[in-house]
């Protein structure tokens, strides 16, 4: 694009730029000329009509000619400037020439006709008026120097002719003063014309620059999703690119000249509270002159709700009218994505319930109201076995269905969330009666009575629930969560599928368990654990066939602690794994000093079996202490046989040559079918079947004992009777066909150092093995 020059000469301008400059001069003349000449016509006509001298018909003819010409020329130029009616520039120059000549002649005639007949006072009035008329006429024609000279020459000639009618030497003085006035007026006119010329050229240059900026903005926006905006110091849009106009949904002509605040209000930015806050912030930044970034606002364009992000900074341009520049972008898609992410951050993606964070926030809002809040935590009883047997994808389906069941029985004011895993939480604050609260939680558990239809099967899901309240049981949400968990643990320990409320005893118990955990960790470091061994003797021959390793804890302050008081804590915390590893190594090491036909039995928990590389750690221990696998017996409790994962571990142990015994048989959930699936070598009959034999040999327990031993024989399993303390009990279990006896009758648990002496004094101790 060619740039308009800044110098006064038009010689270096292109035809296009000369045309633009001439058009701008004519625009200025069209705006000023009608009013200037109209004022002069009214003043002069008034003077002519009111003159006291006898001017004859001139008094009325001259004003009439002036009025007609004023109206005609004024209508022409007003139409040019206000109505946008524009002839060719040549025509306009011809009209301007005619008007200057006509009016110059009219004013010259006025001086020539009136000076000879006026008295000195009226001559002075006429002289002042005509000289003022010359000055008024110069202003609208100053953009054209030739017209200015014509005007000054014509009127000055007429006024000089009038002065010539005066007597000597006055005429020479008046003409001299007139010449000085006209020369000064023309010099001032040239200076003023140069100033106006530079102003016009500056305006055209600014337009060129603005057009260039718009062109560059349009080129930039063609390859971008954003748009640029620019305002003057008042906040009025001065540069409107086509993309900005497209985003606003209005033609650029309707946007330019309006403030950014007006533009944004016009497209609905003030309809929402957030939008009004954004507009206030925008106005505050404009007023303070501070830059802003990523100002988000909601707008409505062509009936479609959109989200914009706007940034801007104050300018430091050459012009004092320079205001703000910035960039805007339509972030509707990213805004919805961000909102969706925020929603996902508060919702559990698997179940659609509130997640832990969102649930805590909702419960916190209830706590702020100062009312009693009930919080329950629900946990599925058999979820892990479902995951292990049917796969995690089925487990996910279970969690979805459980969430649906819970949500289906909730009231509108009750809050439900998934805390993680198979743990759910429910809270409400509108019930005071404790019995009614328990009934509400029972309703939730009852929702699980109907079997779940999964993978083509009807699966029964059970759940346990513990609950507490604030302020009765806790002082804040964190404590409320803790007491609800304590109540849940109590429900599970009570047999599962239970509802338990929190009480102070549970807190004391939890404190005791926490203290026990600390003591257990210290006991591992200080080696406070020791093993004692209880002999197992053949029922038929009295031969010692093995020893069961029993764990004891020598507590520094509490003395000897039995496993029943600390094993559950060790299992819950995972400490049972290192404790069990130490027990296995110590027992195997002790057995290497015994006769080779005597085995050692070690109890193993479910947590140990499920620990990583358990089978490999047992094999490695046997190799390191140099004990034959056949001399080791692993004892597992009856409750483990329902889990396929545990069965696989037992199969691997049996493949190494290690014997597997089921401990406490008859107190759990085993069936004959499940026994046949396990790689068992022995059944250990619980002491609950042995103890009643002394009091009533014909009791049903005796029949059950005989039946259990018969079943074991049919499966090819040896049997061990635990808790044999009298000769009568020994005789009866032997009569039933039991293979091995273990109990105080044959020997109390002893330390490893005492075993050689025990074997030496026990009759037939080395005679053989069952």
UniProtKB/TrEMBL annotation:
- InterPro entries in the cross-refs: Biofilm_reg_signaling (IPR052155), EAL_dom (IPR001633), EAL_sf (IPR035919), GGDEF_dom (IPR000160), Nucleotide_cyclase (IPR029787), PAS-like_dom_sf (IPR035965), Rev_trsase/Diguanyl_cyclase (IPR043128)
**Which positions fall inside the GGDEF domain?**
371-504
UniProt keyword Iron, yes or no:
no
Q: Which domain of life is it from?
A: Bacteria
Q: Does the keyword Membrane apply?
A: yes
Keywords from UniProt, A to Z, are: Membrane, Transmembrane, Transmembrane helix
- SUPFAM superfamilies for the chain: EAL domain-like (SSF141868), Nucleotide cyclase (SSF55073), PYP-like sensor domain (PAS domain) (SSF55785)
- Where the record annotates domain EAL, the positions are 513-763
From the record, give the transmembrane residue ranges.
28-51, 57-79, 91-118, 149-165, 171-193
Q: Report the protein name in the record.
A: Bifunctional diguanylate cyclase/phosphodiesterase
Lineage at the top is: Bacteria, Bacillati, Actinomycetota, Actinomycetes, Mycobacteriales
């Amino acid at each position: 694009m060619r740039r308009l020059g800044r110098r006064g000469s038009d010689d270096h301008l292109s035809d296009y730029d000369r045309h633009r400059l001439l058009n701008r001069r004519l625009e200025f003349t069209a705006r000023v000329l009608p009013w200037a000449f109209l004022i002069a016509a009214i003043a002069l006509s008034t003077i002519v009509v009111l003159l006291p001298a006898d001017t004859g018909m001139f008094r009325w003819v001259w004003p009439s000619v002036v009025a007609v010409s004023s109206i005609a020329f004024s209508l022409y130029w007003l139409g040019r400037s206000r109505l946008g009616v524009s002839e060719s520039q040549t025509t306009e120059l011809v009209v301007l020439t005619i008007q200057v000549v006509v009016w110059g002649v009219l004013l010259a005639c006025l001086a020539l006709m009136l000076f000879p007949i006026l008295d000195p006072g009226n001559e002075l009035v006429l002289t002042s008026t005509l000289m003022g008329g010359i000055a008024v006429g110069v202003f609208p024609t100053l953009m054209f120097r030739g017209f200015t000279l014509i005007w000054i020459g014509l009127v000055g000639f007429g006024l000089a002719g009038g002065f010539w009618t005066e007597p000597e030497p006055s005429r020479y003085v008046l003409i001299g003063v007139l010449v000085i006035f006209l020369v000064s007026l023309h010099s001032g006119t040239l200076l003023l014309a140069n100033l106006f010329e530079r102003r016009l050229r500056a305006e055209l240059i600014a337009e060129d620059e603005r057009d260039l900026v718009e062109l560059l903005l349009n080129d930039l926006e063609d390859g971008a999703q954003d748009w640029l905006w620019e305002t003057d110091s008042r906040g009025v849009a001065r540069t409107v690119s086509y993309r900005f106009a497209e985003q606003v949904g209005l033609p650029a002509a309707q946007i330019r000249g309006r403030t950014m605040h007006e533009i944004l209000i016009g497209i609905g930015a003030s309809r929402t509270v957030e939008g009004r806050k954004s507009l206030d912030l925008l106005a505050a930044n404009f007023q303070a002159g501070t830059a802003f970034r990523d100002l988000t606002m909601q707008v409505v364009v062509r009936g479609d709700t959109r989200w914009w992000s706007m940034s801007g900074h104050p300018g430091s341009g050459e012009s004092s009218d320079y205001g703000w520049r910035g960039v805007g972008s339509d972030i509707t898609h990213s805004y919805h994505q961000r909102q969706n992410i925020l929603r996902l951050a508060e919702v559990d993606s698997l179940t659609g319930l509130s997640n832990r964070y969102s649930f805590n926030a909702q419960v916190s809002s209830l706590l702020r109201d100062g009312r009693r809040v009930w919080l329950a935590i629900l946990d599925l009883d058999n979820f892990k076995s479902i995951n292990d047997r049917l796969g995690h994808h089925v487990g996910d389906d279970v969690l979805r269905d459980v969430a649906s069941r819970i949500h289906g029985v909730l009231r509108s004011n009750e809050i439900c969330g998934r805390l993680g895993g198979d743990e759910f939480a429910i809270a409400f604050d509108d019930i005071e009666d404790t019995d009614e609260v328990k009934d509400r939680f029972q309703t939730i558990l009852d929702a699980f009575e109907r079997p779940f239809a999964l993978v083509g099967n009807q699966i029964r899901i059970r759940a346990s629930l513990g609950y507490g309240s604030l302020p009765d049981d806790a002082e804040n949400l964190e404590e409320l969560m803790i007491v609800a968990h304590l109540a849940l643990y109590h429900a599970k320990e009570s047999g599962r599928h239970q509802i338990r409320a929190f009480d102070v005893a549970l807190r004391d118990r939890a404190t005791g368990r926490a203290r026990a955990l600390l003591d257990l960790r210290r006991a591992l470091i200080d080696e406070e654990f020791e093993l004692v061994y209880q002999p197992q003797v053949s029922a038929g021959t009295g031969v010692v066939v093995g020893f069961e390793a029993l764990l004891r804890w020598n507590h520094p302050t509490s003395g000897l602690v039995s496993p029943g008081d600390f094993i559950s804590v060790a299992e819950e915390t995972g400490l049972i794994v290192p404790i069990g590893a130490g027990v296995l190594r110590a027992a195997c090491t002790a057995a290497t000093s015994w006769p080779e036909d005597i085995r050692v039995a070690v109890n193993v928990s479910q947590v140990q079996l499920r620990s990583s590389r358990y089978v490999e750690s047992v094999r490695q221990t046997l190799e390191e202490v140099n004990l034959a696998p056949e001399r080791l017996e692993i004892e597992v409790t009856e409750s483990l046989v329902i889990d396929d994962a545990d069965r696989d571990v037992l199969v691997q142990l049996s493949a190494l040559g290690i014997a597997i015994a089921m401990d406490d048989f008859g107190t759990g959930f085993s069936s004959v079918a499940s026994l046949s699936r396990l790689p068992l070598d022995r059944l250990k009959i619980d002491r609950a079947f042995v103890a009643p034999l002394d009091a009533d040999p014909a009791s049903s327990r005796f029949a059950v004992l005989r039946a259990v031993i018969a079943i074991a024989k049919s499966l090819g399993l040896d049997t061990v009777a635990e808790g044999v303390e009298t000769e009568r009990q020994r005789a009866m279990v032997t009569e039933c066909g039991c293979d091995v006896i273990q109990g105080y009758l044959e020997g109390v648990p002893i330390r490893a150092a005492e075993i050689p002496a025990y074997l030496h004094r026990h009759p037939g101790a080395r005679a053989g093995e069952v």
